[in-house]
Each structure stands twice: as structure tokens, then as C-alpha cells.
């Protein structure tokens, strides 16, 4: 076989991804049922569902670049599934919010209209509903390939709104929102380069990983300095020595470097003839 499906059949891949998508919901339900969600279980379930919604939105956007870098076209088979899962987690998040408002829809609507971060979350949810509703083959046929693709480009602004919503409601240090924002910046720039140049070469991929990583480190350092008064030297030392674990900026840099390593490994394996090159170039569209 000419691609990664030599190792993982599409059916097995689909099943593994489905299980991975269901697992967080099962985990949330189990923790809730066992009373393992701390003193405010509803708030905790709301946060967990929202976090997984954002993670899956980002993951669904990462499928295309990963597919191109790994020259694994069949990875596209799971993209839709991940996108629908993102919608399901966002819907669960919204349902928990409504339940938390004692199903008082008028009060909930008022809150959504008045609080900016809720208005932004609601807009993202409406976008996800539109994408999920048109995700079937029948809808894709009805809309026609071009219109369907145009509509599904909405996934990018939706991801931006979801990450902004994530940032705005964060009261303490924004660790995960910073990682999500960094990954989203990488994905947006990758897509922009791909559209502009037609292909993303290895040097560009390297520049992208290092550039976005550096931006994330600089942004994190600036926020910690201005918001919490931690001097930049202290932040950078903590980042390089990992004394407070992997900092968000370093995580974004790490992901960028990992993608470059994957691309190099894929090129080497192609040249060694262990996996004959497919029609799709390493990082082309
Ligand atoms: C009408 C739509 C939405 C409403 C009413 C809503 C409501 C909320 C509320 C009240 C919180 C704060 C939870 C807390 O007390 O800490 C929150 C947090 C959050 N929401 Fe939403 N949200 C909506 C849509 C979305 C969407 C579409 C996404 C993602 C795609 C999302 C992702 C998140 C995330 C990641 C958090 C932070 C979770 C954490 O602290 O770990 N929300 N949302």
C-alpha cells in the first residue's frame, strides 16, 4: 500500500478515533456519577466539556496539515468525525450551562446578550451547528463541492471565537488558552502559506514552527510581566529549566518542532524506499 494505511487500516483508524472522541465524555460522566468532580461538579463538568470542544476544534483543523506532512491522505477520513465531536462537546457545554441556569431560557438569553464572552461563545456555537448540520455526504452533494468548502472554511473563524471565549473567561493564568492560541496561529499561518505558495516546504515549516513558538514565548513572557509582575528573565529561566513544568510557549514551540521532525522522518522513509512516495508531496496542498 502507498500510504500510512499500510500500518493502520482506515476502519481501525476510524474506530480508534471514535473511541478517543467518546472517552472524555465517558470520563466526565463517570467522574460526575462518582462525585469525583470537587465541590462544584456542574461548573467542573461545564469547564471540561468546553475544554474538550476547543481541543477538538483545533484537532479537526490540524488533520489537513498532518495529512500533508505525513503524506497520509486517508487521515482525511477522520476529520469530519472530529469536527462533529467538537460540536457535540460544545452542545453538551451549552446544555450544562442551561441546566445550571435552572433551564430559565430567558435569563440565559439575557446573560448571553449582556456578557461579551458568552456572546462570543454563542456565536461560535451557532457556527459549529451550521458545520455539523452540513457535514453529511448528502448535504455536501446538495451544496456542491465549492459552496460546501467555502462554508467549512468557517471552521477557522469559529476556532478563533472559541479560543477568545476561552481566554476571556479565564480568571487566573491562561495556560491552556495560550497553548490553543499558539496552535491556532500555527494552523492559520500554515493555511495562509499553503494558499499563497501552493505548498509548504520543509524550510517554511521550520520557520513556521520556530516563529510561532517564539511568538508564543514572547506573548507569555509579556503577559506574566505586565499582569503578574514576573520579570522576563525569571520567566525565561523557568521555561528553559522546566522548573514549573512545560510552559505554554515551550509547548507551542515543541509542537512546531515535532511537526518538522515528522516531516523529515517521512522524507527519509520515502527516500529509503520503505514507503514509496505517494502523489501528494511532503507538505503540499
Ligand atoms: C452559548 C454558548 C456558550 C455558553 C453559554 C458558554 C458558557 C460558558 C461559561 C459560563 C463558562 C465559564 C465556566 C466557569 O465558570 O468557569 C465557559 C467556559 C468555557 N467555554 Fe463556553 N460557552 C459557550 C460556547 C462555547 C463554545 C462553542 C466553546 C468551544 C468550542 C466553549 C468553550 C469553553 C471553554 C474552553 C471554557 C473554559 C473551560 C475551562 O475553564 O477549563 N464555549 N463557557
Number of domains: 2
Which ions and ligands are bound to the chains? protoporphyrin IX containing FE
Low-confidence segments, ≥5 residues, pLDDT <50? 276-285
Averaged pLDDT, please?
91
Strand content: under 5%
Order of helices and strands: HHHHHHHHHHHH
Counting DSSP E segments of at least 2 residues, the number of strands comes to: 0
* Biggest sheet layout: none
The helix count comes to 12
**Cα radius of gyration in angstroms:** 20 Å
Roughly how much helix do the residues carry, as a percent range? Answer: over 70%
Q: Cα distance, first to last residue?
A: 21 Å
- Estimated structural class: mainly alpha
Shape: globular
Walk me through what this model shows.
With 285 residues, the chain is mainly alpha-helical. The chain has two domains: 1-169, no CATH class; 175-285, no CATH class. The protein has helices at residues 10-33, 41-70, 79-100, 105-114, 116-133, 137-143, 145-152, 155-168, 175-197, 202-228, 232-241, 248-271. Helix 1 (10-33) packs antiparallel against helix 2, helix 2 packs antiparallel against helix 3 (79-100) and helix 4 (105-114) packs across helix 5 (116-133). It is globular, with a radius of gyration of 20 Å. The model is unreliable at 276-285 (pLDDT under 50). The chain binds protoporphyrin IX containing FE. Protoporphyrin IX containing FE (HEM) binds at residues 43, 46-47, 50-51, 53-54, 57, 90, 93-94, 97, 112, 118, 121-122, 124-125, 128, 162, 165-166, 169.
Amino acid at each position: 500500500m502507498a500510504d500510512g494505511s499500510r500500518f493502520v487500516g482506515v476502519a481501525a483508524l476510524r474506530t480508534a478515533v471514535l473511541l478517543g472522541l467518546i472517552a472524555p465524555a465517558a470520563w466526565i460522566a463517570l467522574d460526575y456519577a462518582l462525585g469525583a468532580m470537587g465541590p462544584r461538579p456542574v461548573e467542573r463538568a461545564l469547564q471540561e466539556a468546553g475544554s474538550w470542544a476547543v481541543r477538538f476544534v483545533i484537532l479537526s483543523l490540524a488533520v489537513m496539515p498532518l495529512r500533508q506532512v505525513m503524506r497520509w491522505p486517508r487521515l482525511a477520513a477522520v476529520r469530519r468525525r472530529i469536527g462533529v465531536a467538537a460540536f457535540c462537546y460544545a452542545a453538551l457545554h451549552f446544555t450544562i450551562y442551561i441546566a445550571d441556569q435552572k433551564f430559565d431560557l430567558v435569563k440565559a438569553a439575557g446573560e448571553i446578550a449582556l456578557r461579551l464572552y458568552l456572546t462570543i461563545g454563542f456565536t461560535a456555537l451557532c457556527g459549529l451547528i451550521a458545520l455539523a448540520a452540513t457535514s453529511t455526504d448528502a448535504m455536501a452533494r446538495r451544496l456542491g463541492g465549492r459552496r460546501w468548502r467555502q462554508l467549512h472554511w468557517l471552521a477557522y473563524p469559529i476556532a478563533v471565537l472559541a479560543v477568545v471565549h476561552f481566554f476571556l473567561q479565564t480568571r487566573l493564568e491562561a495556560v491552556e488558552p495560550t497553548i490553543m492560541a499558539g496552535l491556532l496561529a500555527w494552523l492559520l499561518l500554515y493555511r495562509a502559506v499553503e494558499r499563497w505558495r501552493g505548498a509548504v516546504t520543509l524550510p517554511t515549516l521550520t520557520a513556521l514552527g520556530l516563529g510561532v513558538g517564539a511568538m508564543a514565548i514572547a506573548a507569555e513572557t509579556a503577559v506574566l510581566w505586565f499582569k503578574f509582575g514576573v520579570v522576563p528573565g525569571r520567566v525565561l529561566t523557568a521555561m528553559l529549566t522546566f522548573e514549573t513544568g512545560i510552559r505554554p510557549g515551550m509547548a507551542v514551540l515543541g509542537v512546531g518542532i515535532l511537526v518538522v521532525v515528522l516531516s523529515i522522518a517521512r522524507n527519509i522513509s520515502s527516500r529509503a524506499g520503505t514507503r514509496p512516495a505517494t502523489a501528494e508531496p511532503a507538505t503540499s496542498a
